[in-house]
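W.,

You were right to be curious about this one. When I first looked at the sequence I had no strong expectations either way, so I just let the prediction run and decided to look at it fresh. Below is the sequence, 394 residues in total, followed by the output.
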Amino acid sequence: MKSLVFNQLLQVISYTKFQKIVKKYDGDKYKKTFSTWQHLKVMLYFQLSGRTSLRDLVTSLKSKSENLYHIGIGTVSRNNLSHKNKRSNSNIFQELYSELLNTMLGKKMIQKRKKFKFKDELKSFDSSTISLCLEIYQWAKFRKTKAGIKMHTLLSNDYDVPEMITVTNAKVHDSKELWKIPIKVNTIYIFDRAYLCLKYLYSLTQNRSHFVIRMKSNTKYLTLKNFEVSDLNKSKGVIFDHKIKFTGSKKDDYPETLRHIRFKDATTGKIFNFITDRFDLSPFTISEIYKDRWKIELFFKKIKQNLRIKKFLGTSRNSVLIQIWIAMIALLLFEWAKYISKNTSMGLKEFLSHIHENLFTEKCLVGILNHEKNQKRQDMLDSTNQQLSFSLGH
């Protein structure tokens, strides 16, 4: 029997490495018939198949019961899956994500999207709130009538994948998660003004990494020098470029000098004030670095629209965490699919539409992913031949 599309997608996940992670957390200590490996497959099927609820998921699996054996899944009941989502350690799936990400980056399986000439890596840190029903998710209460969680995410701008995610109650202030970010040398971290914590920014500078961040309106500082702005930079929107030093009660939190750049966006007319510890880059490049932060906004939009992270199969915090990490693993499967198919322009929505109905078929995964691209090429060829035929008078 040929390999099912679902099995082809999972080839990038090492069963041996996954079992080591499971053993580390005693994930199968009390297993009976539903192992953590099977749990992973069922939850990935939920993300990739377009199912919308626990009942819908179990019903779909039952309708394909003859194929479950071929993907290593036995009979799945709502009780078994609910229990596993509640009891399995979410750290298992978090570590699997990190293991898979490191493997794929090491083997250059994820497309690099670097647009700047400097060698430093770019990373953006931000959060996105996911609203929950207060009656069901009491543990996530953050207002009298609301419940919700925040996904605090460190995104690699060069690869468009998250390197770190922490999940907190929505009432937790964004800046409190800053100190969990792993600091890497020769890296520029991009933040919005909500993350203007001087002690943290100074820790970046001390560890040979850098930052670009928006200034708050009430920031107290002293201008030490006005750098000359070239006509070219002025034409691109740079208003001024200053050397500054913080003053006020928190001046000792960042005792060194910094750079303050004011920029006007030509499209919106909006004025931006940036702070950075990089003095070697042009002021317009600094503004472009901050503009690159938009990638994390697009990332949140992409996963909320295409992956199952807004409605959850379980009500416990553990269930929510598992579903989020499985969604991120599905995102890596998408990156791997682009790699093996060489269809680098394929979007997540397009990927999911290609495989929704084909997971339990024996078709070639690469062929499925390239069908639309090949069809477009054929349409263009037919159109060109038709035009040529007319021009020759046939």
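Here's what jumped out at me. Strands lie at 121-132, 147-156, 161-169, 187-191, 210-214, 221-227, 238-246, 258-264, 271-276. And, maybe more interesting for your project: Residues 377-382, 384-394 have pLDDT under 50 and may be disordered.

Coffee later to discuss?

I.
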